[in-house]
Amino acid sequence: MNTKLIAVLALILTLLIGVVVGLLSARIFLRPDHPFDGRPPGRFMMNEEFFMRRLEHVIEPTDEQRDSVLVILSAHSDRFIDLHERQFERATLLMDSLMQELESVLTEEQLQRFKEHMEDRRPKRQHRGRFGGR
């Protein structure tokens, strides 16, 4: 065999190994039973179903415990959801105030960089925290 053919075959083999490793990794790390699957993109909205499903996933109650655990979680879900929404509203107001003050000082280029930075951070910030974190 000539060296060009060997080089091409080695490159193709390396590519195929990378694809196989990637697929296997995706199956391991992107489990279909993960509680975040199926949520719509964009702003994270906590609701009772998500709250209960996420905590049930964390707790992993036995069959005997499941009904009692779900009753307890349901009794507390409204307060946590309300807290989450109020926190989001306050953060939005604070960010609007910050932007308003910065707009009077920064150049267009600086404002654009700041906005892009905040957009880049958004997915990380949305799911951080005690009940929304990964």
Radius of gyration: 23 Å
Supply the number of structural domains.
2
- Main beta-sheet annotation: none
Q: Which structural class is indicated by helix and strand composition?
A: mainly alpha
Q: State the separation between the terminal residues, measured CA to CA.
A: 51 Å
Rounded average pLDDT: 77
* Number of strand elements: 0
Helix content: over 70%
Relative strand content: under 5%
Q: So what's the overall shape?
A: flat
Low-confidence stretches: 32-43, 124-134
Q: Number of DSSP helices?
A: 4
Question: What are the secondary-structure elements, in order, as H or E?
Answer: HHHH
What does this protein look like?
This protein is mostly helical and 134 residues long. The protein is built from 4 helices and no strands. The protein has 2 domains: 30 residues; 96 residues, no CATH class. Helix content is 74%, strand content 0%. The chain starts with a helix and ends in an 8-residue tail after the last helix.
Summarize this structure briefly.
The chain has four helices and no strands. The protein has helices at residues 3-29, 48-59, 63-103, 108-126.
How is the secondary structure organized here?
Elements: H1 3-29, H2 48-59, H3 63-103, H4 108-126
Helix pairs in contact: 2-3
Overview features:
134 residues, single chain, 4 helices, mainly alpha, 2 domains
